[in-house]
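Q: Sequence in, structure out?
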Amino acid sequence: MLKEEKNALKSEFNRIIDSVPKTKQQELHNDLSVLNNHLNKYDLFLVNWGQSFVQFFTSNITKKMKNFVDDILDGYDKGKGYELEDRLLVKNTLAKIIEKYDSNNRTLLDKLLSVLGFS
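A: Exactly. Output:
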C-alpha cells in the first residue's frame, strides 16, 4: 500500500471516528480494539508494550480509536504483512465500520477494497 493511499484511508477513518455520536463511540472502540488486539501478534513485544502504555494513559476515546486505526493500517504491509486470513479480517472489519458509521459510503468502500488489494 502506498504511503499516500494509507494516509488517505487514515484521514477517512479519522473523519468517521470524529463524526460518530457519543452513544456509539464505545461500540466502535470495541470493534477497533478487538481487531487491533488480534493483530498484535505481528508487532514486536516492545512496540505492543509501548502502545498499551500510551493507550492506558490516553483518556480520550477518540484518540484511542485513531491510534488503533493507525496501528492496524501501518502493520498491514510492513515486513511480510498480515496473513491472508488476517487481511480478510481487516477488510471485513473496516468495511463493516464504513457501512455502519458512514452511511454505507460506496466510494470509500471501493477505495478501501482497492487500497487493501481486494478490488
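The radius of gyration is 14 Å.
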